[in-house]
Amino acid sequence: MNRNLLKFLLILLAIAFIVVLANITMRNLPVSDCKVKIEYRGCDELLEERDIAKMVQKKFGRVKGKKRKEVHCEMIEEYLVQQNLISMANVYLSLNGDLNFEITQSNPIVRISNSNGEQFYLDSDKFVCELKNGKAANVIVASGELTGRPKIKQQIDTTFIVYNEIFEIVNQINQDEILRNQIDQIYYSKKDKFQLIPKVGDYVILLGDTDSLKEKLKKLHHLYKDGFTKHGWDNYSLVNLTFDNQVVCTRK
């Protein structure tokens, strides 16, 4: 065998041996620290670093100080994404021994209070989130004749028709800057379907069912932009959006 080739192969074997030995050594070293980073995506900050630490310790015990080979990042990720208010989780060990947690918080868009007094959030992906003690998201509140209590992390679908409709209403409102700043609550009844309660003013907006939802909310947008700015909303008790091509306002 060519002497240079033999020398090259021996060097490769030596490098491979060193890499394997270093890897074994590093896997037996302790986790030096746990670092948490939470991405809120512009929504209210409900989760804190200590919440993540408590979740991990409850399930896996004290992670800091464990041998790195005993820490299974994928298992921790799978556990975290099942927890309340966590949308995504990325867990990995860095070369210096830090265990890094990159967490994306769920984005609650509506708070639902059903007929039994049970409350929960729906997030921007239609998943159910529990309320968090001591902190509340500044979102639209939906109440009224609402029944059923979906499980945490359950994604709302046609099984909960009214909750699905509430999500669609809130989603449309949030896409409109004017309406997002005006609407505070949604009330549902079997008789009148959906009513919108504004943040300012002593009047009710009758939305009815969710048929032609975009058109109804577009009419409301123009009413706020062009109508109420001229005549004011204090003169009315009811704004009815259920008629085609028109808005009917009832004076006090």
Polypeptide structure, described:
The protein has 252 residues and is an alpha/beta fold. It is built from six helices and twelve strands. A nine-stranded mixed beta sheet has the order 6-5-4-7-8-9-10-11-12. It has a three-stranded mixed beta sheet with strand order 1-3-2. The longest helix is centred in the N-terminal third of the chain and has 25 residues, at 3-27. The protein starts with a helix and ends with a strand. Mean pLDDT is 86; it is low at 16-22.
Compute the CA-based radius of gyration. Answer: 27 Å
Number of DSSP strand runs: 12
- Unreliable residue stretches: 16-22
For the terminal residues, how far apart are their CA atoms?
102 Å
Identify the overall geometry: elongated
Q: Roughly what is the average pLDDT, rounded to an integer?
A: 86
Within CATH, the superfamily of the largest domain carries the name Cell division protein FtsQ/DivIB
How do the helices and strands follow one another from N- to C-terminus? HEHHEEEEEEHHEEEHEE
Number of domains: 2
Give a quick account of the main beta sheet: strands, pairing sense, barrel closure: 9 strands, mixed
CATH topology of the largest domain: Rossmann fold
Query: Strand content of the residues, in percent?
Result: 25-35%
What is the level 1 CATH name of the largest domain? Alpha Beta
Strand order of the largest sheet: 6-5-4-7-8-9-10-11-12
SS content category: alpha/beta
Helix coverage percent: 25-40%
CATH architectural arrangement of the largest domain: 3-Layer(aba) Sandwich
Helix tally equals: 6
